[in-house]
Amino acid sequence: MLKQFIQITIFLIIFIAVFITTTYLAVYFFVKNEESVVIPDIYGKDIIYVLELLSDNALNTKVEGTEYHSTIPKNHVIYQDPKPGSEVKVGRDVKIILSKGSKWLTLPDIRGVSIEKAYVLLDANRLCSGEVTQIFHPYFESGMIIAQYPEPGTYIAHNACINFLVSRGNRFPLYQMPDFTGVSFENALISLNKIDIKPVSIKYASDTQWPENRIIEQNPLFGASIAKDEPILLTVNRRVQNYESLKGGVSLFIYTVPNGFLRKQILVRLNIFGVTIHVYDNFFYPSEQIFVIIPNDCDASVFVYQDDELVESQIY
Questions:
Q1: Has domain 172-240 been given CATH number 3.30.10.20?
Q2: CB-count burial class (<10 Å; 0-12, 13-18, 19+) for 240
Q3: From the CB of residue 50, how many other CB atoms can be counted at a distance below 10 Å?
Q4: Selection from 217, 312, 177, 301 nearest residue 257 by Cα
Q5: Which of 34, 98, 198, 254 is the one with CA 20 to 30 A from 140?
């Protein structure tokens, strides 16, 4: 009985030894026959380049995470496993960690650029816009950055907010008052309209030395500095009328909006009794007609502006 037990034990030992040896040899030859590849050095390389390189070598890319790095740019490799030069089988995973860029950056100089361009620069540097304060400035055009806080060159963290001081332009752009003496009333209005100045008051007087409807006086005087909203008084030459012979009644001024596809902003100003009245200031459809009733027993003038440009005037 003991002899039989010993024989069975020896048989099992031999069987197990043969099985292990056979399995080892099979795995050894199988692995040996697999194609191997050398891991390239991808430290500091861009992620797009890394993906293409590892894919060309039949290796898989596995991103383990991202970390800040003081010198390696964003989306570049700062760690790899296996190490460069290691020989591995094809299809192996290569673990990498990508840089999030520096945790701190040098704030660029955004002064002197438009606020729109400043927003683009902030977005490119992963910064946000803080408080935006607007002031009038005689030298910076409207919408330009005058100052910033923190100042340029300051080290700041990503996602920090930058405050801006933005120009609203020159509050009082000054123009030189033209000499309108002897100029026709219509030409004077056209000249003022070119510099976006509209006369606030118009009065009439009679002077036989000048033709009718010519400017005989002006205030401010020629050469004076005037601002956009400064009141301007023009005195227009009109013949003396015999008011007793006037029959009274009214005249009708008609303006037809030009043809087109879009509505146009129309401003109609009536100067009567030394006062300027905004009769219309609205959007009108193309071909739409605008009517203004003018009393016959007084001096009056009508001015029509389309999109802030003088397009028609009439003196009564």
A1: yes
A2: exposed
A3: 22
A4: 312
A5: 198
Query: Which residue would you say has higher pLDDT here, 159 or 257?
Result: 257
What local confidence, expressed as pLDDT, does residue 240 receive? 60
pLDDT at 139 over 50: yes
Domain 36-102 has CATH 3.60.15.10: no
Domains 36-102 and 104-167 alike in fold: yes
Full-model pTM? 0.36
- Domain 244-316 fold: Immunoglobulin-like (2.60.40)
State phi, psi for 31 to the nearest 5 degrees.
-65, -40
The yes or no reply on domain 104-167 and CATH 1.20.120.330 is no
Parse the chain into domains and list their residue ranges: 36-102, 104-167, 172-240, 244-316
Q: Which of 32-36, 106-110, 146-150, 211-215 has the lowest mean pLDDT?
A: 32-36
Whether 5 shows a pLDDT value over 90: the answer reads no
pLDDT in tens, 281-316: 999 999 999 988 888 777 788 889 888 788 888 887
Type of residue found at 184: S
Tokens of 96: 């990498």
Per-residue b/e over 78-98, b at no fewer than 16 CB within 10 Å?
A: bebeeeeeeeeeeebebebbb
